[in-house]
Amino acid sequence: MHTDLVAALDIGGTKIAGALVDGDGRILQRTQRPTPAQEDGDTVMGAVEEVLGDLAGSPSWAGARAIGIGSAGPVDATTGTVSPVNVPGWRDFPLVDRVRAVTGGLPVELIGDGVAITAAEHWQGAARGHDNALCMVVSTGVGGGLVLGGRLHPGPTGNAGHIGHISVDLDGDPCPCGARGCVERIASGPNIARRALAAGWRPGPDGDTSAAAVATAARAGDPHAVASFERAAQALAAGIAATATLVEIDIAVIGGGVARAQDVLFAPLRRALRDYATLSFVQRLTVAPALMGTDAGLVGAAAAALHAAPDTTAAGVG
C-alpha cells in the first residue's frame, strides 16, 4: 500500500486527464476523457465524474487521501471555482465542491494549470534543486507559475506567475484579456504564426500555418519566420527579466508547443535576455527547456495535493 497516494486531475479545453500518483511522482493509474468544451457546465462536470469514476474503480483508490486539480483558468482557490476561458459553460463553476461531493469528501487542492506545471518541473523536472524559479508554458496561450523560497507560490487564488499577461509593449496590440501588448499577444503560437503571415511568410504545399511550421521555415532561413520568433523571444525575455527583477528567480523553465522550436526560440531568447536582465542580481539567470512533457499537469496537481495534505512525508514536493 502506498502511504503517499493522491488523485490528480488535469483539466483543459481539449481533455480531462486523471491519475493516481504516489509520493515519488509515479503515475500508478491513468485515464482521460475529451472535454465537451462547448456543452453546458453540468455536461463538462459529467466528463470529470467519469474520470473520477475510472480512478475510483482502481484497487489503489482506497489509499488516496487527497485530490489535486490543475485547471485551465482563471481559477479561484479561495472560492473553489473555475472559469476556464476555453470552457464557456464553466463560469464561477463550483468545481471543488462538486469533486468533493462525488469523492466522499476527500480534501481537494485547486491550482491553475500553469502553477501545476511549475509544481511538476520543480519536483521532478528542469527546476529541481532551484529554490526560486519561473516555469512557463508557451503554446496556444502563455501561462506560468512561481517557486519562491523553495515552495510553490500559487498566490491566494492559485494564479500567481501568470506571465502571459504582463504587458511588454505599451503601445502594442490589444489583447483579448483587455490590456495591451501582453507577452501572450506576441509570444503565443497562434500569434507567432499570425505575425509571420502578415509579414509575408507563406506556408508550404501542405498549407500548415502553425507555429511549428513557422519554426521549420525559420530553421531553413526564412527571414519573416525568423523575425517572428525573434519578436516572440524578445517579449518572453522582457517578461522573464521583469519577473526576475521583481522576485529574484534564478531559472526560467519554458515548456509548451512553442518551446519545441528549440534553438529557433532559445537562441534569440538567451540573446534578448542579456539585453533585459541587466542588473547584477539577475545576470546569472538561466533559461532551460521543460522536461516533464505531457504528464506535467497531472504530476503537478499531485504535488500540490501532497504538499497541502497535513500528513505528507514526501520530501521536496513543490
Automatic annotation (TrEMBL):
Q: SUPFAM superfamilies, alphabetically?
A: Actin-like ATPase domain
The protein's matches in InterPro entries, at most eight in alphabetical order, are given as: ATPase_NBD, ROK, ROK_cs
Q: Which Pfam families match?
A: ROK
| Family recorded in the similarity comment | Belongs to the ROK (NagC/XylR) family.
Task: Give the PROSITE patterns listed for this entry.
Answer: ROK
Coiled-coil blocks: none
- How is this protein named in the record? ROK family protein
**Gene3D superfamilies reported for this sequence:** 3.30.420.40
